[in-house]
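Long-time lurker, first post. I've been practising inverse folding by hand and with some scripts of my own, and I keep getting stuck on stretches where the structure tokens seem ambiguous. Below is the full token string for one chain I'm working on. Before anyone asks, I'm not after the true native sequence, just a reasonable design that respects the backbone. If someone could post their per-position residues I'd love to compare against what I wrote down in my notebook.
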């Protein structure tokens, strides 16, 4: 058993920001993460950059709201916009010294533009911004006297008593070790492991969402799963940053035709949900879609050297166009929080992708995820201090039955992903969503039965994934309106598809 004033679960930009803010206030902070390397965190994989307000804060606000299909919470967007530039300057520039790309002529920041942005306002380091932010962030926290980081450590379950969270059970002992905290901050990232193809790192199993929901916290907007339109279409997908389209690359179908102007006035720079469905339509009708980088102002390898290296690793000849396809990218919903990251449970906060702040609504604007994590992480960490831990009776996690076969969890994950891909992807049919709920309920029931007498990280991850998947399916089935990245197939579309067959 151990105690800490602040427990942060996760080491992406949101978790790091929360730890930094709490440590600056003099709090003792314990940070736990499943990750063993920085690249195990989603923030490390972020490519395009981090948005600022540019020359027009009001324009930035309106871009966020427009990209969300007018569903974003305006008050939450105001919080993001008001705090954006000061957070970036304070933490990333002044504290961490991130060397964002500079314009070769002016030696000032080289802002770029991405889809659905009305101007160039995004700071970046090539197309690998995430790792250039997260790695110095972790090094900085490693050296902070108020912060301890435990790697390769999973939080299995929240410790609760009478509607209050008192910490979490960690997998540092065979049947779990209780860590009692004055305040607990969940920053566990995304849900990529719920889908076969994702831009997230392995281990993105919805842990924070599931733990919070099982403890009784409210979740919201779970149906809004965003698919990025331009991931490499091969067996090992990697993201082709929206910045590539922002700098002038074009999407072409299997006939070599540019098609996005037929789908949206902003063409390649339309909101992500629009581009993703258009890309999938063209793949279905013409066999493939490629990203044509020959239209860039400078050679692809010079403009985006990190992406060119990725292409070389996968034997992709970018001169012939890079094959792309939609890929699960970001969950816009999550644990419902206020403007400080507070959940509906006392002493529990959530920040980053596992949280639903209301900023993204039904669809996220490009390069706002790192910014949201930074802003809400700082606000949550600052707000969370001043509460002493109160030890209570910890959950009794059992580990008395024999280990399950090595492939048990992997096989169940395969079943879960098949359901999510088939029924809860880019387009969703009401009948199929109802079918998905039934399959996912049975899967969760199976996992619950095994986890009662076994304590193993892969089982808890499977439990968390099945809970999160079920929350997504319920929210999707309960929303009959197509909005943003939740697209419900109409009866007319089903009839047309049947006629084409």
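-- Answer (accepted) --
I ran through it position by position. Result:
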């Amino acid at each position: 058993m151990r105690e800490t004033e602040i427990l942060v679960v996760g080491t992406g930009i949101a978790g790091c920001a929360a730890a930094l803010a709490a440590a600056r206030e003099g709090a003792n902070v314990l940070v736990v993460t499943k990750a063993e390397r920085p690249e195990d965190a989603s923030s490390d994989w972020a490519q395009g950059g981090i948005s600022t307000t540019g020359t027009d804060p009001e324009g930035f606000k309106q871009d966020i709201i427009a990209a969300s299909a007018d569903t974003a919470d305006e008050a939450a967007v105001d919080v993001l916009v008001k705090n954006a530039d000061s957070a970036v300057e304070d933490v990333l520039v002044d504290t961490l010294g991130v060397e964002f790309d500079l314009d070769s002529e002016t030696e000032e920041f080289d802002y770029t533009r991405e889809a659905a942005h009305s101007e160039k306002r995004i700071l970046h380091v090539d197309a690998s911004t995430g790792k250039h932010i997260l790695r110095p962030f972790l090094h900085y926290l490693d050296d902070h006297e108020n912060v301890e980081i435990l790697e390769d450590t999973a939080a299995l379950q929240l410790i609760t008593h009478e509607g209050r969270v008192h910490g979490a059970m960690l997998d540092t002992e065979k049947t779990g070790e209780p860590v009692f905290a004055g305040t607990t901050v969940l920053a566990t990232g995304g849900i990529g492991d719920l889908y076969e193809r994702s831009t997230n790192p392995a281990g993105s199993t919805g842990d924070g969402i599931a733990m919070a929901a099982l403890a009784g916290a409210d979740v919201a907007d779970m149906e809004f799963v965003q698919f990025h339109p331009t991931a490499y279409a091969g067996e090992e997908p990697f993201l082709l940053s929206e910045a590539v389209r922002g700098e002038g690359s074009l999407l072409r179908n299997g006939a070599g035709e540019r098609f996005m102007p037929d789908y949206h006035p902003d063409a390649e720079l339309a909101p992500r949900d629009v581009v993703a469905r258009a890309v999938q339509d063209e793949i279905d009708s013409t066999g493939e879609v490629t990203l044509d980088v020959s239209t860039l102002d400078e050679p692809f390898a010079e403009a985006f050297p990190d992406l060119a290296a990725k292409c070389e690793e996968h034997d992709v000849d970018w001169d012939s166009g890079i094959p792309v396809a939609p890929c699960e990218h970001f969950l816009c919903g999550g644990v419902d929080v206020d403007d400080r990251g507070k959940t509906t449970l006392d002493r529990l906060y959530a920040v980053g992708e596992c949280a639903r702040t209301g900023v993204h609504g039904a669809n996220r604007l490009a390069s706002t995820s790192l910014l949201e994590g930074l802003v809400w992480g700082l606000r949550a960490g600052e707000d969370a201090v001043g509460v002493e831990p109160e030890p209570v009776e910890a959950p009794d996690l059992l580990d008395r039955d024999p280990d399950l076969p090595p492939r048990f969890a992997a096989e169940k994950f395969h079943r879960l992903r098949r359901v999510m891909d088939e029924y809860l992807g880019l387009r969703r049919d009401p009948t199929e969503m109802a079918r998905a709920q039934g399959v996912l309920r049975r899967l969760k029931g199976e996992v619950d039965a095994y986890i009662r007498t076994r304590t193993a990280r892969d089982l808890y991850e499977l439990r968390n994934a099945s809970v999160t998947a079920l929350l997504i399916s319920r929210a999707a089935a309960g929303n009959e309106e197509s909005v943003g990245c939740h697209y419900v197939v109409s009866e007319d579309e089903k009839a047309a598809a049947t006629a084409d067959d």
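A couple of notes from the structure itself: Residues 430 and 477 are 6 Å apart (CA to CA). The two ends are 62 Å apart (CA to CA). Happy to go over any region you disagree with.
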